[in-house]
Design brief:
single chain, 11-stranded mixed β-sheet, EC 3.1.4.11, PH-like_dom_sf, calcium ion binding
Length: 780
C-alpha cells in the first residue's frame, strides 16, 4: 500500500466517520479499512498536511529551542513527534488530550522565552489536566496558521462525533493496533491481543472458539467478511435486543406507533406521534424503513446513543432558567486560590490556572495581591514559597478568557495586602485593561436596593474587595475621601495558610482608586445574622472559612438561608488544606450560599459534585436556587425537614444494566484487565444522602453486565445530586477510579438511558459509558 493510498484512505475514513450512522455501515467501513485500498479519493487538504507532518521548533526556555518533526499518525487521533532521548526515540499524544490550540505567544513560556517579533510564528498546544503546555514555533506565519487551523479541524471533527461514532472509531483503532504485521488480516494471536486492548479477558479455549466460528476459510487468519462476522459477534448487545424486540411488533421492526408506545411507557415522556416521527427521520438509517415510518434496531441504537437517549434531559442543556433575577438568587461556580496549579505551600502560580478555571465556566476567581519588585503588584500565596505571577498578566488573561465559554458576569475576589502605591497601580490595570467590561458604578441614577441580574450583567466583571465608604456615598456627593484604613481581608485574618509565619496586620490602608471600583461586592466582617440584617446593605458580603460556615449551616440553617436571600456569601477551604484538597460543597448549597469556592486544580469527588451542579443551564456558571431558598416566607431547614413546598417526596428506582468500553487503569501492563463495579450515590439534604453499589465483574471492561436494581427515597429532589462511580475492584488495596458522572436529580430523564463517563479530572472518556434504567416517581 503506497503512502498516497494510505493518506486517501484516512481522509475517506475521517470524513466517512462523521456520516456513519449504523453498525451495518460501520461493518462496511471495517471491511474497507482492513481489506481494500481505495484509490482516486480527493483528500482533505488540512488532514493531508498533518499526515505529511513537518518540522517545528519546540521551546522550553530561552536557551532550549530544538527542532522536532511532528506528524499525525494513521489513526487520525494520535500526534507523533521525534525525541532525541535514547530511551524514548518516539513520542505520541492523543488529539483527545488537547484542551485547546492557541495561536501566537499566548502561553507564559512563549511570552517569557521568545521575542515579540516572532508572535505570528508561535502557537501552543494546551493539554487537559496538569500536563505541561507544548510551545512551538513554525518557520513562518503561514505555516503556524496552517498547523493551528488543521489541528483545530481534526480536534473539532473528533469531538463532534456522537458517542456511538467515537465508540466505533475506538474499536477500529484497536483493530489496527492488533494487526501487528499490517497485512489487513487477524491471526488468533492478534485477536487475543485485540481483546486485551479492548479490556476483556477470555480464556484461550473461548478465544479459539470465536476464531474458528469466524474463520470460514480455515486459513488461520480472519480477513474480509470474516472480520465483519467477528465484529458482529463482538458488538452484539443482548440487552438492546430484549428491549427492541419487546416493542418491535410490526414485521420485526418498530412502527411509528410501536416507538410511541416505547416513549410513553418506558421513557415516560410526554411524547406525540409527531415526536416519534421526528426520531425516525433523524436516526433511522435504512431508507426503506424510514419511508414506512419504521425504526430498525440500528436506528433504535442510534437514538439511544444521542442526546434524546441520554440520562441528561436535553431541555436542560442550553440556558433554560430565568436569568433575570437578582445575582444573589443563583449558585455561582467559584474557585479558591485560582492562581495555584498545585498545592498551597510550594506549587507554581500561573495565569494558565485562571484560563483553565474561566474556560470551565468558573464565574468567581480569587486574586491574592502582594507588593512585588519594581513597584509591580504580584499574585501568590503569601508567606509561602509558591511562585509569583504579575497582577497585570493575570488581568490580561482574565480579559481574554472571561467570556469564552459563558457570557455571564465574572467576579474578581481580591485579597489585598498591597501598599497604597501598588493598589493604585492595581486599580489602573483593572480600569485600563478591562475597559467597559469593568463595573465602576451602580446601574441606574439612584441608589439600588438589590443586585442586578446575571442577564443585566452579561459581559461584565465585578470587583469584590474592601471599600472605604457606603455605596450610597456615590449618590450623596460624599465620595471625596482619598484613602483610609480598613480591616484586612477576612480570609487573610483567618490565617488560611495554616502557617505560624509572620503575623498579619489587622488593618491596612486602602487607596481610593481601588475602593471606588468595588460596587456590588463590598467585603465586610461577619458579626452575626441579626447584625448583618440591621447594619449591612445588600451589596456588603462576608467570606466564611469552612469550619465557621459548616457550624452555621448545622446550628442556624434557616437564618443562614434568609441571610443569603438578601446578600452574597463566600465560603473558602480551611487553611489546613495545604494539599489543595476540598470540602463537600453540598451542605453549603443546602443553605443557599452562592460563592462556594473550591480548589479547581484538585480533581476530587467534591469537584465532580461542583461540575455536576453546574452541568446544566448552558454550563454558564450560574444555577437558579430553588424557590424555597429565595422566598422570604420560607422556613426551610435542611437538617430538620418539616412540611413545606420543599417536601416533594419521590422514590427513585435505578437498574444498572451494563457498561461499554471501560478504559484500562494500568495501560503499562499489557495483560491488565479491570474488574468493574458501579456505585450509585445521592447527595442532598442529610435525609437523602445514600450510596449503593453493584457486585464486581471479573476481567471484563468491554461489555460488563450487572442487571442490579436499587431504590432510593428522596425528600428534597430540587437539592439532590446523582453521582455514578465506576471502579476497578481490588481485594488488597483501595479500588481505582475508572470513571464518574454527576448531575442534578431534577435533570435526569426516566427510562432506558446511556450515561457518559468522565475521568477524575472531569474530561469525557470518549468511548465509555453505562446503560441504565431509571424511574423517578412520586412517593406513595
Amino acid at each position: 500500500m503506497n503512502r498516497q493510498n494510505i493518506e486517501n484512505m484516512l481522509v475517506f475514513f475521517l470524513r466517512y466517520l462523521t456520516q456513519i450512522s449504523s453498525l451495518h455501515l460501520l461493518i462496511k467501513l471495517v471491511f474497507l479499512c482492513f481489506v481494500t485500498t481505495p484509490v482516486g479519493l480527493e483528500g482533505d487538504a488540512d488532514l493531508q498536511f498533518l499526515l505529511i507532518g513537518g518540522e517545528l521548533v519546540k521551546i522550553r526556555s530561552s536557551s532550549w529551542k530544538k527542532n522536532r518533526f511532528y506528524k499525525l499518525q494513521e489513526d487520525c487521533r494520535t500526534l507523533w513527534h521525534e525525541s532525541k532521548k535514547t530511551f524514548r526515540r518516539n513520542q505520541t499524544f492523543s488529539i483527545d488530550d488537547i484542551e485547546s490550540v492557541r495561536k501566537g505567544r499566548q502561553s507564559e513560556g512563549l511570552k517569557k522565552h521568545t521575542d515579540p517579533s516572532v508572535e505570528e510564528q508561535c502557537f501552543s498546544i494546551i493539554f487537559k489536566g496538569r500536563k505541561k503546555n507544548l510551545d512551538l514555533m513554525a518557520v513562518n506565519a503561514e505555516e503556524a496558521n496552517r498547523w493551528v487551523s488543521s489541528l483545530e479541524k481534526v480536534k473539532t471533527t473528533i469531538s463532534n462525533l456522537s458517542h456511538q461514532q467515537k465508540s466505533e472509531h475506538w474499536i477500529i483503532n484497536c483493530m489496527r493496533k492488533a494487526d501487528k504485521n499490517e497485512d489487513n488480516k487477524m491471526t488468533l494471536k492478534e485477536l487475543k491481543h485485540f481483546l486485551r486492548q479492548i479490556n476483556v479477558e477470555v480464556d484461550d479455549t473461548y478465544a479459539e472458539e470465536i476464531f474458528k466460528k469466524c474463520d470460514k476459510s480455515n486459513s488461520g487468519s480472519l480477513e474480509g467478511a470474516e472480520i465483519k462476522h467477528f465484529y458482529d459477534l463482538l458488538t452484539h448487545r443482548e440487552e438492546i435486543d430484549v428491549i427492541y424486540n419487546k416493542y418491535a411488533q410490526t414485521q420485526g421492526q418498530m412502527s411509528l406507533r410501536d416507538l410511541l408506545n416505547f416513549l410513553l411507557n418506558e421513557q415516560r415522556e410526554q411524547a406525540t406521534a409527531e415526536d416519534a416521527s421526528k426520531l425516525i427521520e433523524k436516526y433511522e438509517v435504512d431508507e426503506t424503513a424510514k419511508q414506512k415510518k419504521h425504526m430498525t434496531k440500528d436506528g433504535f441504537l442510534m437514538y439511544l446513543h444521542h442526546e434524546e437517549g441520554s440520562i441528561l434531559n436535553p431541555a436542560h442543556i442550553p440556558v433554560y432558567q430565568d436569568m433575570s433575577q437578582p445575582l444573589n438568587h443563583y449558585y455561582i461556580s467559584s474557585s479558591h486560590n485560582t492562581y495555584l496549579m498545585e498545592d498551597q505551600l510550594k506549587g507554581p502560580s500561573s495565569t494558565e490556572a485562571y484560563i483553565k478555571a474561566l474556560t470551565k465556566s468558573c464565574r468567581c476567581v480569587e486574586l491574592d495581591c502582594w507588593d512585588g519588585a519594581n513597584g509591580e503588584p504580584v499574585i501568590y500565596h503569601g508567606y509561602t514559597i509558591t511562585s509569583k505571577v504579575l497582577f497585570r498578566d493575570v488581568i490580561k488573561a482574565i480579559k481574554d478568557y472571561a467570556f469564552k465559554t459563558s457570557d455571564y458576569p465574572v467576579i474578581l475576589s481580591l485579597e489585598n495586602h498591597c501598599s497604597v502605591e501598588q493598589q493604585k497601580l492595581m486599580a489602573h490595570y483593572l480600569i485600563s485593561i478591562l475597559g467597559d467590561a469593568l463595573v465602576t458604578k451602580p446601574f441606574g441614577d439612584t441608589m439600588p436596593t438589590n443586585f442586578p441580574s446575571p442577564e443585566e450583567l452579561k459581559g461584565k466583571i465585578l470587583i469584590k474587595g474592601k471599600r472605604l465608604n457606603k455605596l450610597d456615598a456615590i449618590f450623596n456627593n460624599n465620595n471625596t475621601i482619598e484613602e483610609g484604613t480598613v480591616s484586612e481581608e477576612d480570609e487573610a485574618a483567618d490565617c488560611e495558610n495554616g502557617q505560624k509565619a509572620k503575623p498579619k496586620k489587622s488593618k491596612i490602608k486602602l487607596a481610593k482608586q481601588l475602593s471606588d471600583i468595588v460596587i456590588y461586592c463590598k467585603s465586610v466582617h461577619f458579626s452575626g445574622f441579626e447584625h448583618a440584617k440591621d447594619s449591612h446593605g445588600f451589596y456588603e458580603m462576608s467570606s466564611f472559612k469552612e469550619s465557621k460556615a459548616f457550624n452555621l449551616a448545622e446550628t442556624s440553617a434557616t437564618a443562614y438561608i434568609h441571610h443569603n436571600m438578601d446578600k452574597l456569601s463566600r465560603i473558602y477551604p480551611a487553611g489546613s488544606r495545604t494539599n489543595s484538597s476540598n470540602y463537600n460543597p453540598v451542605p453549603m448549597w443546602n443553605v443557599g450560599c452562592q460563592i462556594v469556592a473550591l480548589n479547581f486544580q484538585t480533581p476530587s469527588k467534591e469537584m465532580h459534585l461542583n461540575q455536576g451542579r453546574f452541568l446544566t443551564n448552558g454550563t454558564c456558571g450560574y444555577i437558579l436556587k430553588p424557590e424555597f431558598q429565595r422566598s422570604l416566607s420560607s422556613q426551610f431547614d435542611p437538617n430538620t425537614l418539616t412540611q413545606g413546598p420543599w417536601m416533594k417526596r419521590k422514590t427513585f428506582y435505578i437498574m444498572v444494566i451494563s457498561g461499554q468500553q471501560l478504559p484500562k487503569i494500568n495501560k503499562d501492563k499489557h495483560k491488565s484487565i479491570v474488574d468493574p463495579l458501579v456505585r450509585v450515590e445521592i447527595y442532598g439534604v442529610p435525609a437523602d444522602n445514600a450510596s449503593k453499589e453493584t457486585h464486581h465483574i471479573e476481567n471484563n471492561g468491554f461489555n460488563p453486565m450487572w442487571n442490579e436494581n436499587f431504590q432510593f427515597d428522596i425528600h428534597v429532589p430540587e437539592l439532590a445530586m446523582l453521582r455514578f462511580v465506576v471502579e476497578d475492584y481490588d481485594t488488597t488495596s483501595p479500588n481505582d477510579l475508572i470513571g464518574q458522572y454527576c448531575l442534578p436529580l431534577t435533570s435526569v430523564q426516566n427510562g432506558y438511558r446511556h450515561v457518559p463517563l468522565l475521568t477524575k479530572r472531569g474530561d469525557v472518556i470518549c468511548s465509555a459509558g453505562l446503560f441504565v434504567h431509571l424511574m423517578l416517581l412520586d412517593a406513595q
